[in-house]
Amino acid sequence: MKRLELAIESIILASRWLLVVFYLGLGLALAIYALSFAKKLYEFITKVMVLGDTDTILKILGLIDAALVASLVVMVIISGYENFVSRFDEHDGKVHWLGTIDVGSLKVKVASTIVAISSIHLLQVFLNSSSYSTEQLMWLTIIHLTFVLSALMLAYIDRLMGHGKDDKSASPD
Question: What stretch of H or E contains 86?
């Protein structure tokens, strides 16, 4: 019976390698998104001289938004692989936060990035508010505030969990 238990545990532990397919898929999606970003950047460059101030700001905010989304994808790929699949071997170009982000911290970083993306989107909407109804503006603001509240709650919970770990490590057992 112990052999069966060990075999099942080995299979379950090895199943984490299936996550590699997801991380590679996210890498491919990031490459495709980079092409989309390059297209937006090219269109911005070719039209920059005829755009008004508001349109220029909207285009730049769109590029910043894309950069934040791309950074989020990279963060999820690297942290997810590091936390759930395998530690990275030492590399010269090592990312300084590699190996320091646990699942709780990753959730807070993802939530913070989502808030930043939502903020940029909301700013774009308000700069172009004539295209939206009052009800749409209200709901977009409520949704954004929900993201903010969720991020704050995740950060609070992560901090509580972190303090709990510190307290346990400090107590003599």
Answer: none
What span, in angstroms and rounded, lies between the C-alpha atoms of 156 and 164?
Answer: 12
Residue 129 phi/psi, 5° resolution? Answer: -65, -20
Q: Say which amino acid occupies 110.
A: V
CA atoms within 13 A on the CB side of 87: 6
* Tens digits of residue pLDDT in 99-134: 566 677 778 888 888 898 899 889 888 888 888 999
What's the distance, Cα to Cα, between the start and end of the chain in Å? 34
Structural contact between residues 101 and 79, judged by C-beta atoms closer than 8 angstroms: yes
Give the integer Cα–Cα distance in Å for 73 and 60: 20
The alpha carbons of the chain give a radius of gyration, in whole angstroms, of 22
Q: Residue 96 pLDDT > 80, yes or no?
A: no
Measured in whole angstroms, the distance separating CA 107 from the mean position of its chain's CA atoms is 8
